[in-house]
Specification:
Largest sheet: none
Shape: globular
Strand content: under 5%
Number of domains: 1
Number of helices: 4
Oligomer: single chain
Distance between the termini: 18 Å
Order of helices and strands: HHHH
Radius of gyration: 13 Å
Length: 64
């Protein structure tokens, strides 16, 4: 689905960083360096980005 606006564990705002993360990963940059440059230092925020699967386009197909 859509990336949460805030981290579910610590409450840090992270939603605005998702597009930049995706853009940097697609250019072939190292995930660790991208997360560091975005200021995601806590393991909960990093896990949120690393484990998120964007399924919005798949779900949108079943809209009535």
């Amino acid at each position: 689905m859509i990336i949460p606006i805030r981290c579910m564990s610590c409450g840090k705002p992270v939603g605005h960083l998702w597009e930049q993360y995706q853009k940097d990963i697609k250019t072939g940059k190292n995930k660790k360096n991208v997360l560091d440059s975005l200021g995601l230092e806590r393991y909960c925020c990093r896990a949120l980005f690393m484990s998120h699967v964007d399924t919005l386009k798949d779900v949108a197909r079943f809209r009535q």
